[in-house]
Amino acid sequence: MKNVEGKIVLITGAAMGMGKLYAERAVAEGALAVVLWDINRAALAETADQLRQADGTTEVHTYLVDVSDRHAIEANAALVLEQVGTPDILINNAGVVRGNKYFWETDNAADTEFTIRINTLAPMFITRAFLPAMIESGREGRLVNVASSAGFVGNPRMAAYAASKWGAIGFSDSVRLELDQAGLKQLKVTTVCPYYVKTGMFEGAKSGLLVPLLEPDHVVDEVWKAMRKGTPFVVLPKTVLVNEAIKGLLPTGLRDLFVGKVIGIHKSMDEFKGRD
């Protein structure tokens, strides 16, 4: 896929942060339509206005959607299919993070269930709502699921978040294999696994040795290129893969020592504040 010219692009969590950057890329490349899903009404309207002013040809459609609600997902997906058409590119970008507490100190509903609903279940329900139509269209398509490097590495003070992203990675890569097995090679899945990104969502989180905090523009650049190529994984920075390499080589205690003490990951959420 050279670009998204003439295509329909749907992005969740599109009102700000990286979601907004993905939308700007789509408009810049001449997408036929950009569909923005978000729960923040004011930010959604502001972003839509900016996109319309930047380019007069791309249609910009907004939907106020709480992706933690399966029924809201299904209802709004039906509206998109009816009002706009079948997305060619679906970017499951919406996410939340809760941190700075040990698991036994967290609130089951506000922290654990909320995190799992948005980070794990929402991409599954959204994909299920659109993928059959994407398959039926027969067109070249892309599915991008934004997970996290936390889906590879367990970390203190973010148990629910890590669990949600482990689940997202397993789901995303399984769908990739299913599409390939079914012979639907025109549809490619990219799973995105970055370290902490400077969007405000990870305010207060710390960098570590070999794992710096990431700039949103850089992450979006890499994801966009990978999406067009149909690359299965985007892992940023590449040093995150060091942990994967040593999992089968070092005993757990030594690996914990290396990741926690040498790289400093286990202290990265000690001063986390996040976004309200």
Give the helix/strand layout.
Elements: E1 8-12, H1 17-28, E2 33-38, H2 41-54, E3 59-64, H3 70-83, E4 89-92, H4 108-137, E5 141-146, H5 159-181, E6 187-194, H6 216-229, E7 233-236, H7 241-247, H8 252-263
Parallel strand pairs: 1-2, 1-4, 2-3, 4-5, 5-6, 6-7
Helix pairs in contact: 1-6, 3-4, 4-5
Task: Describe, in plain words, how this protein is organized in 3D.
With 276 residues, the protein is an alpha/beta fold. It has a single domain (8-267), classed as Rossmann fold, CATH 3.40.50.720. It has helices at 17-28, 41-54, 70-83, 108-137, 159-181, 216-229, 241-247, 252-263; strands at residues 8-12, 33-38, 59-64, 89-92, 141-146, 187-194, 233-236. Helix 1 (17-28) crosses helix 6 (216-229) and helix 4 runs parallel beside helix 5. The longest helix is centred in the middle third of the chain and has 30 residues, at 108-137. The relative contact order is 0.13. Keywords: Oxidoreductase. InterPro entries: NAD(P)-bd_dom_sf, Sc_DH/Rdtase_CS, SDR_fam. This is Oxidoreductase. Pfam families: adh_short. It comes from Nocardioides phosphati.
